[in-house]
């Protein structure tokens, strides 16, 4: 039908010799898009006219699967929602279920959860730093970031036997208690790690080329950020206080001292700076948690069959490495959630990409995309 | 005494005896350059292999890795293994390629840079052809690579390759200007374009890096940009354009682009050594017992190491920032440098 209509249109000189957009597909197989994100980019020379993210290449319908599994079984799937920061998603789901059923984990389990989630934040931010620098063309920070991340993963492996999908934080507590040598090893790691942050900063932060590439690029104004639902470090770079750990403290975040890292400019460099400062905050947080750790049970006694109260619902949120990680659960009195919805930071953060890159160069797409810290499985779920 | 001049003399004597034995003495003038070119080709091939290994080791060292260490001692044969792999792998060609430019591009990329090696003096008298316009010749012949890159980008029929090709054309054309302008003060002071002559001038005075530090800086920067090396590697920016102009090349054709890139680094570093760092001259007079070509190679490797260190520590510039840097910073500074040097030569005579 369309072909027929097109053939009837007389081709005039203007459409024959007029200019057209240069459409480039970045992804789903492309070295810069993290995972399988596909961007359709309309270019005018090197200048970007429009960026259209195409989602769904990693859609695994985790939400629907969760609605057909019992609550404890769902924890396994949460690992796959955000594989770079699996502990956070574990925690988000466990907390949501506990709140839905009115359970509470014993104090030791809470402290352990905080330690592991903050270690996970370090690991995630380190990987992000490397990937972001790689997007901009500096290849060395990636290896530096991974070097320290390995040691964090060693700590995880020592505790729960896994290095990527931990399945460690369970409903009502944690899977297993830490080994006696965990605490000294963790402290040794923190002492080793803290000077390394300065090393990363020496390499990147005030490098003139790095500043050129990131200062003033991809500015998220507070209005745009809030309207689009941008969250986490990406929004804190614009000076909006949005740390769930401060605003709605969960676990024992109200009993420890830490600062919410805020920058004002809202550009890629601010988002980078926020994450670098968060590394230091997390280190001090883990130290405080290790100090407060006391012996005790690590799991509450759960009923043999875990059922949600009928007609119950909960929206529970935590601060994941990438921003607000919310879980909406509706229980119907059975062992399975009637509705399960993940509110993931990456999805909303990717949403602003088009607004941020219009009128900039093609290389800026990579810088902005990198600075938003998006993870494709979290977008597609 | 072991020196480049003696080695060349004894080798050519040997060759001429060989010619006489097979009765080809009459073609001495034709055969000598052919033999020299082959020697140079052999040397360059081995040296590039060494450099690839060195780059991987340097980057590994900078990134707290080990680098290649499986094939041969210290992984020295890794590049040989890679070269064999590249030659025997399937040659994948895009269907809608523009055939002639597609096939010619890698050859030009390789030949244009390789031809620059001809006038590089490794030692006094150890040079394939000490042209009296040597410097001009190098600048002219190495800019042919832009044709190779443009035609590779165009003929691959790939959007990324085309973007990379255009970026590269813009980049090489704009960085050619500061590159030439940075060499002009040296030519003004020495009054010769012959590379051997420039080194001889430095043997009577000091190395040019002491007089012309700004020119040296501009030269190294623009030479890095000219060779498409990071932080100026935007034509093949991996995170944006996949492989840039060589996205659609594989096998031997890719190897030729790769070879060309490394030879470009060698040529520009060799020019930097010859023009600014005293070529084959020893740094102190009492070290003159070490043959000149060894000094040359040491300096060459140091400059190449510097270029490699750039690559593994700096992020990549954006295309418009790259142009701005070339046109708004390097060229005005280079012109100012020429002006100042001109006044100095005018008022204080040639020796400064």
Describe the structure.
The complex is a heterodimer of chains A (381) and B (352). Helices cover 50% and strands 13% of the residues of chain A. Chain A has 381 residues and is an alpha+beta fold. In chain A, strands 1-2-3 form a three-stranded antiparallel β-sheet. Chain A has a three-stranded antiparallel β-sheet with strand order 6-7-8. A two-stranded antiparallel sheet of chain A has the order 4-5. In chain A, strand 4 (169-170) and strand 5 form a beta hairpin. Chain B is built from 14 helices and no strands. Chain B has helices at 4-22, 28-62, 78-88, 99-115, 134-142, 145-155, 159-190, 195-204, 208-211, 213-226, 238-241, 251-276, 292-313, 319-348. With 352 residues, chain B is mostly helical.
- Structurally, how many domains make up the residues of chain B? 1
What is the number of E strands of chain B? Answer: 0
Average pLDDT across residues of chain A? 86
Helix content of chain A: 40-55%
Evaluate the radius of gyration of chain B: 21 Å
* Multimeric status of the protein: heterodimer
Order of helices and strands of chain B: HHHHHHHHHHHHHH
Strand order of the largest sheet of chain A: 1-2-3
Main beta sheet of chain A: 3 strands, antiparallel
* Count of discrete alpha- or pi-helical segments spanning 4 or more residues of chain B: 14
Counting helices, strands and paired strands, the structural category of chain A is: alpha+beta
First and last CA, distance of chain A: 37 Å
Give the helix level of chain B as a range of percent.
55-70%
């Amino acid at each position: 039908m369309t072909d027929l209509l097109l053939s009837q249109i007389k081709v005039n000189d203007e459409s024959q010799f007029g200019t057209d957009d240069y459409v480039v597909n970045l992804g789903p197989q492309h070295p810069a898009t993290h995972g399988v994100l596909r961007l359709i980019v309309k270019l005018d020379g090197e200048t970007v006219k429009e960026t259209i993210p195409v989602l769904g290449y990693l859609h695994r319908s985790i939400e629907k699967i969760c609605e057909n599994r019992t609550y404890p079984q769902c924890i396994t799937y949460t690992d796959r929602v955000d594989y770079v920061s699996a502990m956070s998603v574990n925690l988000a789901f466990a907390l949501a279920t506990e709140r839905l059923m009115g359970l509470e984990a014993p104090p030791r389990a809470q402290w352990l959860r905080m330690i592991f989630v903050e270690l996970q934040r370090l690991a995630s931010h380190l990987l992000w730093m490397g990937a972001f620098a790689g997007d901009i063309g500096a290849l060395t920070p990636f290896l530096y970031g991974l070097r320290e991340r390995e040691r964090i993963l060693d700590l995880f492996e020592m505790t729960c036997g896994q290095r990527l999908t931990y399945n460690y934080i369970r409903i009502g507590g944690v899977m297993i208690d830490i080994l006696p040598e965990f605490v000294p090893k963790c402290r040794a790691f923190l002492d080793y790690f803290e000077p390394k942050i300065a090393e990363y900063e020496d390499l990147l932060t005030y490098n003139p080329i790095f500043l050129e590439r990131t200062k003033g690029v991809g500015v998220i104004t507070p209005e745009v950020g809030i309207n689009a639902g941008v969250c986490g470090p990406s929004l804190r770079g614009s000076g909006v206080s949005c740390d769930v750990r401060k605003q709605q403290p969960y676990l024992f975040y109200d009993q420890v001292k830490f600062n919410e890292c805020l920058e004002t400019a809202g550009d890629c460099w601010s988002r980078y700076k926020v994450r670098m400062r968060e590394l230091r905050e997390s280190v001090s947080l883990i130290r405080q948690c290790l100090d407060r750790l006391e012996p005790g049970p690590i799991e509450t006694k759960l009923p043999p069959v875990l059922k949600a109260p009928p007609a119950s619902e909960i929206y529970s949120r935590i601060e994941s490495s990438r921003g607000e990680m919310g879980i909406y659960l509706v229980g119907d009195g059975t062992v399975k959630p009637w509705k399960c919805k993940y509110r993931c930071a990456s999805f909303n953060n990717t949403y602003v990409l088009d607004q941020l890159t219009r009128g900039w160069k093609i290389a800026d797409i990579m810088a902005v995309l990198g600075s938003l810290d998006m993870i494709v499985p979290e977008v597609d779920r | 005494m072991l020196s480049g001049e003696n080695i060349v003399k004894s080798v050519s004597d040997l060759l001429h005896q060989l010619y006489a034995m097979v009765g080809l003495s009459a073609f001495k003038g034709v055969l000598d350059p052919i033999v020299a070119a082959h020697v140079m080709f052999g040397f360059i091939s081995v040296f590039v292999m060494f450099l690839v290994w060195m780059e991987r080791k340097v980057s590994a060292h900078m990134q707290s890795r080990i680098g290649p260490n499986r094939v041969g001692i210290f992984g020295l044969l890794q590049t040989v293994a890679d070269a064999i792999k590249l030659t025997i792998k399937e040659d994948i060609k895009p269907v809608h390629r523009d055939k002639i430019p597609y096939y010619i591009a890698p050859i030009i990329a390789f030949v244009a840079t390789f031809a620059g090696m001809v006038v590089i003096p490794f030692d006094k008298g150890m040079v394939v052809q000490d042209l009296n316009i040597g410097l001009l010749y190098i600048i002219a012949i190495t800019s042919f690579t832009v044709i190779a890159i443009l035609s590779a980008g165009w003929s691959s029929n790939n959007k990324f390759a085309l973007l990379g090709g255009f970026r590269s054309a813009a980049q090489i054309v704009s960085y050619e200007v500061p590159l030439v302008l940075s060499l002009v003060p040296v030519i003004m002071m020495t009054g010769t374009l012959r590379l051997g002559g420039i080194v001889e001038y430095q043997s009577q005075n000091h190395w040019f890096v002491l007089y012309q530090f700004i020119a040296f800086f501009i030269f190294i920067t623009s030479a890095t940009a000219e060779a498409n090396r990071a932080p100026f590697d935007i034509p093949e920016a991996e995170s944006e354009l996949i492989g840039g102009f060589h996205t659609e090349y594989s096998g031997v054709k890719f190897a030729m682009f790769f070879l060309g890139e490394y030879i470009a680094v060698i040529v520009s570093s060799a020019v930097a050594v010859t023009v600014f760092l005293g070529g084959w001259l020893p740094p102190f007079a009492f070290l003159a017992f070490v043959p000149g070509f060894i000094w040359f190679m040491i300096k060459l490797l140091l400059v190449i190491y510097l270029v490699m260190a750039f690559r593994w520590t700096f992020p990549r510039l954006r295309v418009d920032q790259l142009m701005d840097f070339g046109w708004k910073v390097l060229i005005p500074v280079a012109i100012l440098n020429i002006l100042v040097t001109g006044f100095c030569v005018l008022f204080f005579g040639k020796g400064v």
